[in-house]
Write a sequence for this structure.
């Protein structure tokens, strides 16, 4: 492998070169400055891995990242620092935003185990391809999808951290498009929102969710079901009555319904929203503040609206074990939920490390994320639950 190491500290260069040679990588070039490195890279674009110290006199790591992005560097990048972990993760974020392939962001000194992981990461085939060109659909197309019943619900399971039992699901809308296949909500929700279709869309998702949830109950699966609503849904005062009527028609127990509320823009009519939300709570529906910690899901909302569940945004959960800032925000959010007598849900549990970290914290009620399961069609859920029953027994700790 062609490897380049950039560090202003000659000792670090020597050490890394030696460590890499021990791992069967003798082809290591070293540079004491980012300027020298850029020259070398201009000559040898095929460099497969660049290790870069982010704190260097002259050109620093942030500038180098910018240059690498500019030259459309295709190899892997490893950022190193002896400094604050937060600076390191910000540089990592910057590099990823520039679409560079970041293989790692490591505190010095770097261990042989870390190096081996990085070499393996670069040798493995490219990560998941980006989703093909995202088509944005017209208002007419979205309206007819709603009308023709082309919108369907997928469900992502949620698991109790204490019992590891499946306790509920979150309904996530998909568009079963006649030609384009399965279309994700980021391709049509904002069109619906901006053109007065979001209310119809939400009511459709809600009705489907209540129906599925009732069917599961009939087959002895008592699960809660969460439906996402945005503050822009909360403009018609009859919204709670609509839900109560639907639940009566379907003989559905409303204590199983959770409404996950997000606010993408400032509330236009806060009193109406508050009226509706309070009545929903009076009907025994759980109100969850979604994506807590981001956007408008703020402490003010927590103070003013009678939420009884707090959903910590995945950005604070995934990799929290390795990121001190995420860890602090996650712990504080969970503590806040507990002190306010709210249930807590952590989104973004993507791997075993996330799961272990969360279970060690011992104060989060429910977990959700790819590690447990991806969203799935309603009919797949019962068989997935059977598989989980086996899998969960292996998740000791
Ligand atoms: Mg949600």
């Amino acid at each position: 492998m062609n490897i380049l190491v950039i560090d202003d500290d000659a000792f670090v260069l020597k050490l890394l070169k030696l460590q890499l040679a021990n791992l069967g990588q003798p082809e290591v070039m070293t540079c004491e400055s980012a300027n020298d490195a850029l020259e070398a890279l201009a000559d040898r674009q095929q460099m497969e891995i660049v290790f870069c110290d982010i704190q260097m006199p002259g050109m620093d790591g942030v500038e180098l990242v910018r240059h690498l992005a500019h030259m459309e560097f295709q190899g892997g990048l490893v950022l190193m620092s002896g400094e604050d972990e937060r600076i390191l993760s910000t540089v990592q974020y910057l590099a990823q935003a520039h679409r560079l392939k970041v293989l790692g962001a490591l505190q010095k000194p770097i261990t042989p185990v870390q190096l081996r992981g990085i070499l393996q990461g670069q040798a493995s085939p490219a990560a998941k391809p980006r989703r093909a060109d995202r088509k944005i659909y017209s208002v007419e197309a979205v309206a007819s999808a709603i009308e023709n019943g082309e919108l369907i619900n997928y469900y992502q399971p949620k698991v109790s951290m204490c019992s590891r039992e499946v306790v509920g699901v979150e309904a996530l809308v998909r568009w079963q498009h006649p030609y384009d296949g399965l279309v994700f909500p980021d391709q049509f929700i904002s069109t619906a929102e901006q053109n007065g279709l979001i209310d119809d869309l939400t009511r459709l998702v809600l009705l489907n969710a209540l129906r599925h949830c009732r069917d599961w109950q009939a087959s002895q699966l008592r699960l809660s079901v969460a439906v996402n609503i945005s503050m822009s849904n909360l403009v018609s005062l009859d919204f709670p009555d609509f839900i109560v009527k639907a639940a009566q028609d379907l003989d559905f127990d409303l204590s199983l319904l959770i409404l996950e509320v997000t606010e993408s823009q400032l509330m236009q009519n806060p009193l109406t929203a508050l009226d509706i939300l309070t009545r929903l709570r009076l009907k025994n529906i759980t109100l969850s503040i979604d994506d807590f910690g981001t956007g408008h899901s703020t402490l003010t909302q927590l103070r003013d609206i009678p939420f009884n569940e707090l959903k910590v945004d995945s950005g604070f959960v995934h990799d929290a074990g390795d990121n001190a800032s995420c860890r602090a925000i996650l712990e504080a959010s969970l503590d806040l939920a507990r002190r306010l007598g709210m249930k807590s849900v952590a989104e973004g549990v993507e791997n075993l490390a996330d799961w272990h970290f969360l279970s060690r914290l011992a104060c989060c009620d429910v977990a959700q994320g790819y590690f447990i399961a991806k969203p799935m069609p309603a009919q797949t859920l019962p068989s997935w639950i059977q598989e989980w029953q086996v899998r969960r027994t292996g998740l000791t700790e």
